[in-house]
Design brief:
Helices cover about 50% and strands about 15% of the residues. The protein has 33 helices and 24 strands. Strands 7-10-11-4-1-12-13-17-18 form a 9-stranded mixed beta sheet, sandwiched between helices. Keywords: Allosteric enzyme, Carbohydrate metabolism, Glycosyltransferase, Pyridoxal phosphate, Transferase.
Length: about 850
């Protein structure tokens, strides 16, 4: 930079004492300064939480330095950027992840120690940022970590909900939901950008305008809301690059409801203004169903509109010709939730930038890519036309135009096949006329991705069949992955250290394929011994948590057998519970002398049910009813325990996963698009008991079926079995355990009746009955393997060794190279 600006920059550099220092004294001083000036407590008297606040501000300062440098560098280099649009990001805690990625965890732990605090205790003070429901949202968070680590010029965009996913409270075994006002104690990980705001319009009318001889549409809004940016710096590991997750909050706009002021109704005018904020107030807690609610649609458009305006503003800062837009911008749609971004880009290009329609639509077709995360047709989002007509009248017109041109083109290609034309149309006719968000996304994106190989096959064969036949080249898959930084290094530091010791390097933290190097030591008795010790310590940590939470003491010799994920019929927690009942029943009916051969189990289940999902809530209650019976049966003792972990979230997962021996992934084949929980367990050396669904099919290729416990119908069997329906041979053991529940053996007979009905012959959509026998066989195989601890440990090492392919680094690199066309841009400062 030259001239006056350059001189100013030089003066600033001279004033700055270079970057913040990370030696123990500087860190201690820094923490104490934040205690005194940021938290405003006396440095002679502060508690663990205040220490956390001060520590996190000190870390934040270091993040900001890197973040500024990175952003400045991106601005100077002006590379093609990817913008990752997602309605949900499940970030969990930030502190530990940040200090590890910045490479200063140990220094901070020492500094805190010198001040009389314990790092682990202080880090525990942080609450979770739970701005998402489940796998899809956590995937976004993992992908942000990989984007930063791999130095990609990327931005995440989402919504800053004031209330994240509800807190689950269990009373008498029933789930209750409580609001998660996560911002109560402040959030040091975000930076409010009061100057980065955009107006977002709703309602109103569309009028024609003539300007310089051209005819344009003008949208006169009925309501305006202001979007304010909150930036969350995301540090990469082993790099200075620190990228931005920009979340939007809704604030009343000065132009909001001017009418009420003019009519003198001041109080109501103020109350109305506050309504604007409700747009970003609460996360919808359903993870796989869509109800066409106005607020949800407002949320989607709100974050999409602000993001698109921001992206176009950044482009225009450096460019004047929109033909260059596709060379500088890639927009990724994380599921269909942000699909209105397509329409918003069209609207701005055509109505505001006055590009002609074809040119705008050509640009749109080059910048958007879409990833689907669902398998079933019912999971596809639809927007009622009436709702859209009132909320976003101009967008509806644009969608009609896009569809008209698409259908006209289609007719030329496939002729007048009206069935097919109507299936492929973006508009669904019928009782409730609606917009099919997936069709809109496919038509306007250059690439459609599935999240595992099986998922893509299912999309091609079912929900997106017509589109696949039309544009086979558009369809790809990128198997999901998770970040080893959070899921090994942060959550399992002792395993992480052990891996580095045996591989002789920490390079696997960035280059995860190196984990395969563990294979050659899998049978080494020294490694096995150390591996077992690490796993035991993690089990102890988990056992302590269980005891603190429920008062239940569990034996460390038992197999810790875990199923943690959202509660869904298709994920079949019910199959797990019925299996546990079977195990209990067997133990009870066994000769005492035979009990010595039983492998003790601590069965751990955790997960939230969507508040309106009755069957899922009954499954939670059943789990508690069965636990009550088993855990109080002294006759069974340590042979079997069942624990439900309440309020499952990212930080609970970080504790549970490293302590699990076995984890269960029981989805009826063909229902789990990918599944990512299994990858986290795998990285931590936990063995999998699973159906051949979603990403498991690819896990088998890496680990080998011998090192897993597989069971159940295969993807292609499922439709046939469903078709056969009532002819199914009833499994007697299955019928017996269901009967026990039905007969009130665990109490609540009437309450569980409808739950039992869901698995009766003829009604058993998720095929619990037909998979039960094979499920028990897999359980027996796991028990048998567990007895031979040497073999088990070897399988455990091989699981970690084979987990490299399931890193989000691999997924992101694939997206960057094959979908977005972006390149790393490492900040050299
Ligand atoms: C999901 C899929 O159900 C899950 O299998 C997948 O791993 C995840 C990430 O791709 O996306 N789709 C979805 O709507 N939710 C998911 O977790 C909530």
């Amino acid at each position: 930079v030259s001239g006056e600006q350059g001189a100013k920059a030089e003066r600033m550099f001279a004033l700055m004492d270079r970057f913040l220092k990370n030696d123990p004294i500087s860190l201690q001083k820094d923490i104490l300064d934040h205690v005194e000036y940021t938290v405003a407590r006396s440095r002679f008297n502060f508690d663990d939480f205040e220490a956390y606040q001060a520590l996190s501000h000190s870390v934040r300062d270091r993040l900001i330095e890197r973040w500024h440098d990175t952003q400045l560098y991106f601005k100077r280099k002006d590379p093609k950027r990817v913008y990752f649009l997602s309605l949900e990001f499940l970030m969990g805690r930030s502190l530990s992840n940040s200090v590890i990625n910045l490479g200063i965890r140990d220094q901070y732990a020492d500094a805190l120690g010198q001040l009389g605090f314990e790092y682990e205790v202080v880090a525990e003070q942080e609450g979770d940022a739970a701005l998402g429901n489940g796998g899809l949202a956590r995937l976004s968070a993992c992908q942000m970590d990989s984007l930063a680590t791999l130095d990609y010029p990327a931005w995440g965009y989402g919504l800053r909900y004031q209330y994240g996913l509800f807190r689950q409270v269990i009373l008498d075994g029933f789930q209750h939901e409580q609001p998660d006002y996560w911002l109560n104690f402040g959030n040091p990980w975000e930076i409010e950008r009061i100057h980065v705001t955009y107006p977002v319009k709703f309602y109103g009318t569309v009028e024609d305008e003539t300007l310089n001889g051209g005819k344009y549409k003008v949208w006169i809004p009925g309501e305006m809301v202001e979007a304010v940016a909150y930036d969350n710096p995301i540090p990469g590991y082993g790099t200075r690059n620190t990228i931005t997750l920009r979340l939007w909050a809704a604030k009343p706009s000065d132009q909001y409801d001017i009418e009420s002021y003019n009519t003198g109704d001041y109080i109501n005018a103020v109350v109305n203004r506050q309504k604007a904020e409700t747009i970003s107030s609460v996360l919808y807690p359903d993870d796989r169903s869509y109800q066409g609610k106005e607020l949800r649609l407002k949320q989607q458009y709100f974050f999409v509109s602000a993001s698109v305006q921001d992206i176009i503003r950044r482009f225009k800062d450096a460019h004047s010709n929109f033909d260059e837009f596709p060379e500088k911008v890639a927009l990724q749609l994380n599921d269909t939730h942000p699909s209105l971004a397509i329409v918003e880009v069209m609207r701005i290009l055509v109505d505001e930038e006055h590009l002609d329609w074809n040119r705008a639509s050509d640009i749109v077709g080059k910048i958007f890519s879409f990833t689907s995360h669902t398998v079933i047709a019912e999971g596809l989002e639809k927007i009622p036309v009436d709702l859209l007509a009132s909320l976003l009248p101009r967008h509806l017109q644009i969608i009609y135009s896009i569809n008209f041109k698409f259908v006209e083109e289609l007719k030329k290609k496939i002729g007048l096949d009206y069935n097919r034309l109507s299936r492929m149309s973006i508009i669904e006719e019928g009782a409730v006329k609606s917009i099919r968000s997936a069709n809109l996304s496919i038509v306007c994106s250059h690439t459609v991705n599935g999240v595992s190989r099986v998922h893509l096959e299912l999309l091609k064969a079912n929900v997106f069949k017509d589109f696949y036949e039309l544009w086979p080249e558009k369809f790809q898959f990128k198997t999901n992955g998770v970040t080893q930084r959070r899921w090994i290094v942060v959550s399992n530091p002792s395993l992480s250290a052990l891996i580095s010791k045996w591989l002789g390097t920490e390079a696997w933290i960035r280059d995860v394929e190196l984990l395969t190097g563990l294979r050659e030591y899998a049978a080494d008795s020294f490694l096995q011994h150390e591996w077992k010790m690490v796993r035991k310590v993690n089990k102890m940590r988990l056992a302590e948590y269980i005891e603190a939470m429920s008062g239940l003491k569990v034996s460390l010799d038992a197999m810790f057998d875990v199923q943690i994920k959202r509660i869904h019929e298709y994920k079949r927690q019910l199959l797990n519970i019925l299996g546990i009942i079977h195990r209990y029943d067997c133990i009870k009916n066994m000769e005492k002398s035979d009990r010595r051969k039983v492998v003790p189990h601590v069965c751990i289940i955790g997960g939230k049910a969507a508040p309106g999902y009755e069957v899922a809530k009954k499954i939670i209650k059943l789990c508690h009813a069965v636990a009550e019976k088993i855990n109080n049966d002294s006759d069974v003792g340590d042979l079997l325990k069942l624990v439900f972990i309440p309020d499952y979230n990212v930080s609970v997962a970080e504790l549970v996963i490293p302590g699990a021996d076995l984890s269960q992934h029981l989805s009826t084949a063909g229902n789990e698009a990918s599944g990512t929980g299994s990858m986290k367990f795998l990285m931590n050396g936990c063995l999998l008991l699973a159906t051949e669904d979603g990403s498991t099919v690819e896990i088998i290729e890496e680990i080998g079926a011998d090192n897993m416990f597989l069971f159940g119908s295969k993807v292609h069997d499922v439709p046939i079995l469903r078709e056969k329906g009532p002819d199914l041979k009833v499994n007697l053991q299955f019928a017996r355990v269901v009967r026990m529940v039905r007969d009130g053996y665990f109490g609540f007979k009437d309450y569980f009746k409808s739950l039992c009905d869901t698995v009766e012959v003829g009604n058993d959509f998720y095929l619990l009955g037909s998979d039960f026998e094979s499920y028990l066989e897999a359980q027996a195989a796991a028990d048998k393997a567990f007895v031979d601890q040497e073999k088990w440990t070897q399988m455990s090492i091989l699981s970690t060794a084979g987990s490299g392919r399931f890193s989000s680094d691999r997924t992101i690199q694939d997206y960057a190279e094959n979908t977005w066309g972006i390149e790393p841009c490492p900040c050299p400062f």
